[in-house]
Every structure is written in C-alpha cells, then in structure tokens.
Amino acid sequence: GQQLNQSPQSMFIQEGEDVSMNCTSSSIFNTWLWYKQEPGEGPVLLIALYKAGELTSNGRLTAQFGITRKDSFLNISASIPSDVGIYFCAPWAGNQFYFGTGTSLTVIP
Amino acid sequence: EAGVAQSPRYKIIEKRQSVAFWCNPISGHATLYWYQQILGQGPKLLIQFQNNGVVDDSQLPKDRFSAERLKGVDSTLKIQPAKLEDSAVYLCASSAAVVQGEAFFGQGTRLTVV
Predict the structure, then answer these.
(1) Tens digit of pLDDT for each residue in A30-60?
(2) B81: Cβ–Cβ under 8 A, 6 or more apart, which residues?
(3) Which of A29, A46, A54, A97 best tests the B interface by mutation, with the highest count of B CBs <10 A?
(4) Three-state secondary structure call for residue B71
(5) How many CA atoms lie within 13 A of B32 on its CB side?
(6) Which of residues 67-106 of B touch A (CB under 8 A)?
(7) Do B100 and A95 touch (CB under 8 A)?
(8) CB contact under 8 A, A88 and B102
(9) Helices marked H in chain A — which ranges?
C-alpha cells in the first residue's frame, strides 16, 4: 500500500504563531488534498492541489504541491484558537484518496 | 447545499451483534465512499461506489462487512457479526467526479463494540 509520512504528529503553539506541516510519500501523486477534522466531526476539505509546484492559498492557509509530486506542505499563518484540530493530507492515486496519519494542532490562547 | 447525511451518530452494540449505518450523499454526487477511522488514525477506505456499482472494495472485510448503494443514491454499510476491533468512526463521503474528485464527508457514525 501507499506509505505516507505526515509530520509533525502533534503541535502545541501560541495563538498568533505560524504553523507548518508536511506530508511525504514514496509514491507519486497527481492530486494532493488537505483536510481538517475537529472532534466528533468528519474531515472538511481545506485546499486542493492539482499540479506539481502549485502554490495555493485559502485565507490564512497556504499549501504547496511538491515538484517531485511526492510531497506537500501546509502552512497556517497567525493561528487562532479555532484552528485546533487534526490536519490530514490526502493524496489521490488511481481512484482513491490515501490519508496521512494526521497532525494534531493545539493553539494556546 | 445540504451536506452528506449519516445516521445514526452513535451506536453501542455487543460483539457478535449486527449493525447498519446509513448515508445520504450530496445530491448529484455519483461517487460514494465508506471509510473506517480508528481512534488516532487517518480514515481508511472500505468501499467506493460509482453510481450503484462498486469501484473498489479491496479493503472491505467481506466475511463480515457488506455495503450496497441501491438506485445510486443512498447507501448502507452493515457489519455482521461485529468484533471488538470494529470499534471506530465510520465516515461516508461523496464526490462529484471519480477522477481527482474532491470528497465531502459526513459527520460519521461512532461505533462502540463491547
């Protein structure tokens, strides 16, 4: 199966700080998606990336599709308490998504 | 636009009992997925439908799990008999396109097997 390494596993940051997380794989993908999951809820799509090298922003979120197509990163600027949750990368291959292990983010007010 | 609806939200059953989950995807979405999410892990695909046909069920434990999507809209996922290790959140997602489709998830059903 696909091997996805998502790091860091968890982060504890002060409100207002910037956050960076990434996802690497041994396989090449054509699409990278980033999802956020809050407790008791299903994952919510944040950003979709479709081209190698693509850099896309959604408000305070910025994500990039690695040029090798084997990695992607997600940055959150000026974090706020509602950013708390688990962030998953979900690259697409063939006909399905593969989810990373998640990065748990805690924002301390 | 209404999102993906799932029911029930929570279910507690004893091992060896059976259970069924229901999913109503976003209107017009041809692709429907069922995922299993064990605590502390990312979602794992169980089965994928395109309309009412199965696209991928390679990771579905077919000796105890079954799923159907009659008429290409609603779907049900059944476990019979349940085991302790089936305790997880079962997520349904739908997508408008098979190729590079962006999937939208329901809130999930949290199953506890005791």
Answers:
(1) 899 999 999 989 999 999 999 999 999 999 9
(2) B15, B16, B17, B18, B64
(3) A97
(4) helix
(5) 31
(6) 91, 93, 98-100, 102-106
(7) no
(8) no
(9) none
How many Å apart are CA B111 and CA B114, to the nearest integer? 10
Q: d(Cα A93, Cα A98) in Å, to the nearest integer?
A: 8
SS3 B38: coil
Per-residue tokens: B51: 């309309």
Q: Which two tokens stand for residue A39?
A: 């407790």
What residue type is B39 in one-letter code? L
CB of B58 less than 8 A from some CB of A: no
pLDDT along chain B (114 residues), means of 10: 91 98 95 94 93 92 95 94 98 81 91 98
Our CA-based measurement puts residue B17 at a distance from the nearest CA of chain A, in whole angstroms, of: 24
Classify residue A77 as exposed, middle or buried by CB count within 10 Å of its CB (0-12, 13-18, 19+): middle
